Amino acid sequence: MKTSLAMKIVLRSLVNLGAQKPICVSFEVTHSCPANCRHCDKGGLKKESGLMSLDDYHRLSRELLPVACQLSGGEPLLRDDLEKVARAIKSPDALPMMVCVTNGWLLSEERYLSLIEAGVNIFSVSLDFPDERHDDFRRLKGLYKKLNGLIPHLAQKYKLGNIILNCALTRANFNEMPRLVKKAEKWGVKISFSAYSILRTGNPYYCINLKEDLELLKRNIEFLLEHKKRAGTVLNSNYILKNTFRFFREGGIPNCLAGVRFLVVRPDGLINPCSMFPKNLYRSQKEAVEDFTTNNTCDQCYVAIRALTDRPFNRMLLDSVRTYLQIR
């Protein structure tokens, strides 16, 4: 089963790269969220109208044919019909690989199981700090306590290996990297790290750019690289970890392929080539590529979706299949 799906991932990736179809699509099913995170632009509960229909999700998934997709937001678990959305996106061939990106506040054992049944392969649960400081950063009191009880319970009871903690590295938390790895190991799950971008909020405070900060970040990246030799807790490839440091050290990474390798589908069905440019709206990928991608010179992010899809072809396939076999 694992090998069969891994081969489908390889074949779909080959086809999509040749046809300039996306490797990953982030379906932002809502822009509403019960948290109001300090490093995010999507905080707070909102009234939304004009949401995509299930038929729209089905149609777009068949048009874009992504290898992987995110159910994201905002907080996707605010959608009571998220399971129906997942089923509309998923094809009979079990693709795309589906990741539910959540802060975990609305996650429950029942919802965990129902989303798996609907086709979700991975739960990416945000964790910024290995203790109650997470509540302050997310502006949601009690969030860490909720995660500290639920995540190890799900991991130990079901042993599916499908929960991954995700930490967005900022100036506020990058010195916590070793402790976050230990927390993941204590909870019995894996962890990945991504990079904060000033494009998200416009706040330069959370950028890691001071000389002394970069020296500590380098040591922490080296810790992760060394730790990976002994354990499978950290899911980032060595290539992505090294590029994450490069992003902060150099202040950017050029040659972004937003709109081609990855793109965002908003709650209303319009397309953003990149979530960092929410005002760039298009009705099709073709339109997004012709107007945005061909003129894009931005180098100011190395967020997870870009990091995962921007790798050289051979490396991307090898890393993706290896990661899939490791977590499933």
Keywords:
TIM Barrel, 8-stranded mixed β-sheet, 13 helices, globular, 328 residues, alpha/beta
What can you tell me about this protein's structure?
By secondary structure, the protein is α/β, with parallel strands linked by helices. The protein has one domain (2-327): Aldolase class I (TIM Barrel). The protein is built from 13 helices and eight strands. β1, α2 and β2 form a beta-alpha-beta unit. α1 runs antiparallel to α13 (313-327). The termini are close together.
- Widest sheet, order of strands: 6-5-4-3-2-1-7-8
Strand content: 5-15%
The CATH topology annotation reads as: TIM Barrel
Q: What general form does the structure show?
A: globular
CATH fourth-tier homologous superfamily? Aldolase class I
Using the CA coordinates, give the radius of gyration.
Answer: 18 Å
User: What is the arithmetic mean of pLDDT?
Assistant: 94
CATH class type? Alpha Beta
Please count the helical segments: 13
CATH architecture: Alpha-Beta Barrel
